[in-house]
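Trying the structure run again after the queue cleared.
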Amino acid sequence: MFAKPFPGLSTAAVEGDAVVLLIGMRINHFWAVHQWLPVMLSMKRMLGELARDSGRGLLGHVLLTASPRTYYVVQYWESKEKLYAYATSPDMLHHKAWATINRMDRAGKLRQHVGRWHEAYVVPEGSYESIYADMPAFGLAAAHGVLPVEKRGRRAADRYAYRSSGAPEEAEPADNAG
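Done. Tokens:
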């Protein structure tokens, strides 16, 4: 039940770009349970749907709360293409949920009782780094695997500089001194 900590310092074993989705909801009116509870339950159902089919591309997630009103999920995806494919697939829950919300919106039945939001990021290799101290796999490391920090560098600058075997090297600036 409880994950064993990785001893010492570790980092995420990400190769290539990291795709991160933050998706959540805000309860605007606590008394409107019939409006916000279905949104909350659909978030859990979508995570279950994705857990049952690893080929969809969700690598891991963390459920969080920002306040008693705001709940969200940090999701780590295999690629932006797989994230988009899930979001737009007519046989998946996300597509059905958005169709319902759009119908309610057109009919004027959305009453601002619950807010919904998401932010998606494709973080290029070389633009992220991570470090964990005596932690079980968490966040990016839970999604991509854990490495001893020495494999990528003890300093953040070294971890930022890491490139996977297939990644293009960063171009050196041109010398325009003439």
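The chain has a mean pLDDT of 90. Worth checking whether this holds up in the mutant runs.
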